[in-house]
Design a protein that fits this description.
Distance between the termini: 32 Å
Radius of gyration: 18 Å
Order of helices and strands: EEHEEEHEEHEHEEHEHEEEHEH
Structural class: alpha/beta
Largest sheet: 7 strands, mixed
Helix content: 10-25%
Shape: globular
Amino acid sequence: MDQENKYIPYRVRIAKKTQESSNIQTYRLEFVDEKDAENFSFRSGQFCEYGVPGEGESTFCIASPDTRKGYVECTFRTTGRVTAALANCEENDIISLRGPFGNAFPIEQWYGKNVVFVTGGIALPPLRCVIDTLLDQREKFGEISVYYGAKNVEELTYKAELEEWAARGDMNLFITVDPGGETPEWKNFIGFVPTILEQNPPKSDNAVAVIAGPPILIKLGMPILAKSGFPNDQIYTTLENRMKCGVGKCGHCTVGKTYVCKDGPVFTYEEVLGMPLEY
């Protein structure tokens, strides 16, 4: 269950540190207190606050599936003081975790449907949580398709897991890098994610789509999905980059009357279209 007081952090140990690229890390976090590990639960799409004593906290999605218990994974890029302090931590170091916060993807409503994921760069982590949750109960869903890209091969996250997904044989993968970002060994797509999506459009019959990434990817990708026949209320996204405190106090995440941290971060395209243009 969620911790009753959201201001009191859990103590978690970095059980595994994976260097995804030069400035992107993935941490597997295990709870120091066994009771915390037993009681902590979350849903795909929620986020947490991760902190280093004396440095502050940063907000990241939970990148591991809610079907796997006892640990939480987060993936982040080093961009400032707090993330630099987190990146300097090593395995077995103790950091803090508060949460979970926010709403979640309505996965139960997707049973029996085809699910399409469109994402780029560091935006794969919030969708990886959902993808692995679906894969852990694969029989409940139809086709699973993933369109994912990055500037270059080095910046692709979860390289080992991408290879595992490709080897499964029960999902459609469109992995791409921007023109010029390939290596001599690269055998996948070359091109921007929206271009690959438009060239290989997914079927919208009995399907939902999930899109997350840089604003330009969402701006160009949403109309392609709509053109493919996806209704606006069957296209989902996450706006986690708007969040700060996580509990609706600082106002950093407000878009009109919407508090992304409390009302989101998961929204349908229909809901996003109803937000002020400031977003």
